[in-house]
Design goal:
This is Chaperone NapD. The protein is α+β, with helices and mostly antiparallel strands and 109 residues long. The protein has 2 helices and 4 strands, in the order E-H-E-E-H-E. The two termini are 13 Å apart.
Length: 109
């Protein structure tokens, strides 16, 4: 995953219908609160997830995590996975946007 800046989004984050296409990319940001003594362990576990990357951390036990997933269901699956890690206290979804592959938000080759 390459680092990029995300545009602000004022409309609904997901479509009204339940169907998602493989052309969608769900960009999400999480704040994960961790017991400070488990920070390194949890950071390594999150970075081992294929669609997650730790983008920032605080020594008091906060991690900023960015997800890039094909659908909303995968976002919630990853949140559940992170919440099950030892030392994790809470996980908050702070940003979620659906983009079409090939839009300006995507990386260019």
């Amino acid at each position: 995953m390459k680092q990029r800046s995300a545009p602000c989004h004022s409309g609904p984050a997901v479509s009204a219908g339940p169907s998602f296409t493989s052309e969608e990319v769900h960009i999400s940001s999480l704040v994960v609160h961790v017991k400070p003594e488990g920070l390194a362990q949890v950071k390594a576990q999150i970075n081992a997830l294929p669609q997650a990357e730790v983008y920032g951390e605080s020594p008091v036990g906060k991690l900023v995590v960015v997800l890039e997933t094909p659908n909303h269901s995968k976002v919630t699956d990853i949140i559940d996975t992170i919440n099950a890690f030892e030392h994790v206290l809470t996980t908050f979804l702070v940003f979620h946007q659906v983009e079409q592959q090939g839009s300006d938000f995507e990386d260019t080759p």
